[in-house]
Amino acid sequence: PCPLCRPQLEGLCCFLQLSTCPEHLLVRFCSWLLDLTPNLSYTSATILAEQLFLQRVLSLTQPPSRHLMAALASFCSKYSQPFCRVLVAAVLREPGEGAEQTKLVCELVEECLEPDCVRLVLSQVLEVSLSEKLLPVMQAVLGRQVRRPPPLSPWEVLPPELFDRLVLTLCQQAPAFATSLNYAKLVTAVLTTYQSQVS
Predict the structure, then answer these.
(1) Max CA distance (Å), the chain
(2) What are the Cα distances from residue 22, in Å, to 17, 29, 47, 89, 125?
(3) What pLDDT, in 10s, does the model give residues 176-199?
(4) Domains and CATH numbers, the chain
(5) Pick from 183, 180, 149: which is nearest to 169 by CA?
(6) Per-residue b/e over 145-166, b at no fewer than 16 CB within 10 Å?
(7) For residue 88, which of 77, 65, 72, 74 has the smallest C-alpha distance?
(8) pTM for the predicted model, two decimal places
(9) Where would I find the Fanconi Anaemia group E protein C-terminal domain in this sequence (predicted)?
């Protein structure tokens, strides 16, 4: 198919009612996307991530259905970078507890995203004000590594600049989370996984 500009693609998504289509059809649509040749451009994938998933995820008040999870996993398997830029960033910025959204991001980090996108999620967390809601996401990122005994593969090691930002953030925020069990677990995970790098 010839590439579409943003207004054309957004108009097509609206015409097809992709943002509100039944979730079992969403799974089929995402499977069809994986077979497209050539691959979608970054911009097109970003628009589709927004149209297909953003409102569905932000409006969750209970765990996502198996159909929605299957569609998310399918899309992430090929277009995880634009997915993270759109959906994960929106969840991190969303005010309030957002328990189901946070759980969903944690599950995607633990089960679906490639290591480079896991690092992207961590960098996105470190760009916003740290809150109790975000601690499980950081724990999930480190959990990908804690489950693997050292030495970690090059893909799993955090770049020095990202690791430094993580440690600096944890140090700066320590007083605010003095009574937080999640914060204590997170610091323990950092010390366990990166004991040779922490002085």
Answers:
(1) 57
(2) 10, 11, 19, 25, 31
(3) 999 999 999 999 888 887 777 776
(4) 9-147+154-194 (1.25.40.480)
(5) 183
(6) beeeeeeeeeeebbeeeebebb
(7) 72
(8) 0.82
(9) 8-198
Give the distance, in angstroms, between the CA of residue 150 and the centroid of all CA atoms in the same chain.
24
Residue range 56-114, pLDDT digits in tens: 999 999 999 999 999 999 999 999 999 999 998 888 887 666 789 999 999 999 888 88
Amino acid at 47: I
Structure-block tokens of residue 131: 């809150």
Report the half-sphere exposure of 26 (CA within 13 A, side-chain side): 24
pLDDT tens track for 116-154: 898 899 999 999 888 898 999 999 988 876 444 444 454
Distance between CA atoms of residues 44 and 199, nearest Å? 45
The set of residues, in sequence order, having a beta carbon less than 8 Å from that of 133 and lying 6+ positions away, is: 96, 97, 98, 99, 102
